[in-house]
Design a protein that fits this description.
Layout (H helix, E strand, L loop, with lengths): L12 H10 L8 H13 L4 E5 L2 H11 L7 E5 L4 H9 L3 E5 L21 E7 L8 H11 L2 E5 L7 E2 L2 E2 L6 E5 L12 E5 L5 H8 L5 H5 L19 H11 L2 H24 L22 E4 L3 H13 L15 H6 L1 E2 L6 H5 L2 E4 L7 H14 L2
Parallel strand pairs: 2-3, 2-4, 3-11, 4-5, 5-8
Antiparallel strand pairs: 1-9, 6-7, 8-9, 10-12
Helix pairs in contact: 1-8, 2-8, 3-4, 3-6, 9-13
Length: 378
């Protein structure tokens, strides 16, 4: 069976992991962690980047830095992974869902303002499949209502919006380096901070509520417990694994984009014939660049998608659907609310299927995927 995903491996990961072990430093915040932080800060022109144990923990930190009070609301799409909403709850907020755009599967920026109340404190956007949300519109809304912006850019590393790296545009950005992502450390993530006023508290949250980072910089003679926090600092072994891939970041990115473009070019005739729908770049994002994180297509309806996925698997290809909308989940019904009409979220989620796409997918395998897709429609 052709896998849906293979975690990236460039060849130098074991060398760097061994270095971390031989340096007798495998817990967090060693040389490799600092190298990774600095790489992202330099490459993405980010004020501050901190590696975390996961994309979820990066989101947790972002929400905690917002200092929500009981009843404070955060607007987000329902079509996302549970972490986006769970982190709002961890931070003390209430998730308020709005509908998505069918062309990008991102939050519909035209639905945000109507969902704002006197309790609204932030907007959490999700850059689905590495395609940017309409950030100009989101920023304008946030400014009018004095709201924080949290970018869930778990899938958006190396994507840009009008020249800016996704994750660096809002107040906080959150990346994931899970094994399913373009760059991986097995389990891991990173928090991007725009305003340096949040740096010190972010370090404290990340170090179990202590000012340990200041101690290691020699700014204080001992460290102590000063705030809430958690264990958000990843192992040096994980950071060393990621460091190897950052050295080949452009190669990985171009490889994935090439596969994505091959799929698109080969399947466009099916889209032109009205048999499937493919991702589209909206007019406001013509200057944006995605990262080839995911290739999705849409079938006619849920029944058609079910048959399509079964067809692909019967022909030896792993093909999967994606999120079940959070507002329909048990926790979503218990802790959250959906504002406005669910016109697209459920309908579009039931039509979407994802094709295998990973670094190192061979041209032969990609051609087999395309041929098998086409076979379904003959």
């Amino acid at each position: 069976m052709m896998p849906f995903n293979v975690a990236p491996f460039v060849g130098d990961e074991l060398k760097y992991v061994e270095q971390a072990i031989r340096n007798h430093k495998i817990s967090g915040d060693g040389a490799f962690t600092k190298k990774c932080n600095a790489w992202f800060e330099s490459r993405f022109a980010a004020q501050k980047v901190l590696l975390t144990t996961s994309g979820t923990s990066a989101l947790d930190m972002a929400m905690l830095l917002c200092k929500f009070k009981a009843g404070d609301e955060v607007i987000l799409p329902s079509y996302t992974f549970s972490s986006t909403a769970t982190s709002i709850l961890v931070g003390g907020g209430v998730p308020v869902f709005v509908d998505i755009r069918p062309d990008t599967m991102n939050i519909d920026e035209t639905k945000i303002e109507a969902a704002i109340t006197e309790r609204t404190k932030a907007i959490a956007v999700v850059h689905y499949a590495g395609f940017a949300c309409d950030m100009d519109a989101v920023i304008a809304i946030a400014k009018r209502h004095n709201l924080k912006i949290i970018e869930d850019a778990a899938q958006g590393v190396m994507s840009t919006y009008k020249g800016q790296a996704l994750g660096t545009i809002g107040d906080f950005g959150c990346y994931s380096f899970h094994e399913t992502k373009n760059y991986s450390m097995g389990e891991g993530g990173a928090l991007v901070i725009k305003d340096s006023a949040f740096n010190e508290r972010a370090e404290i949250l990340r170090e179990k509520g202590t000012n340990r980072s200041k101690f290691f910089r020699g700014q204080i003679d001992k460290y102590t417990w000063v705030d809430v926090g958690d264990s958000y600092l990843p192992s040096e072994i994980n950071a060393a694994y990621l460091w190897a891939q950052l050295q080949r970041a452009d190669e990985i990115n171009q490889n994935r984009l090439a596969t994505w473009q091959f799929y698109y070019d080969e399947l466009k005739p099916l889209a032109d014939a009205g048999k499937i729908e493919l991702p589209t770049v909206p007019p406001e994002c013509q200057e944006c660049q995605h990262n080839g994180h995911m290739f999705w297509l849409k079938l006619k309806d849920l029944d058609d998608r079910t048959k399509f996925i079964a067809h692909m698997r019967a022909n030896g290809i792993s093909c999967v659907f994606h999120y079940v909308p959070l507002h329909s989940a048990p926790a979503g019904k218990k802790y959250c609310r959906f504002h406005g009409e669910d016109r697209y979220t459920t309908r579009e989620s039931e039509r979407l299927a994802r094709l295998p796409l990973y670094y190192g997918l061979t041209a032969q395998d990609a051609a087999q995927v395309v041929a098998t897709v086409k076979k379904f429609f003959t």
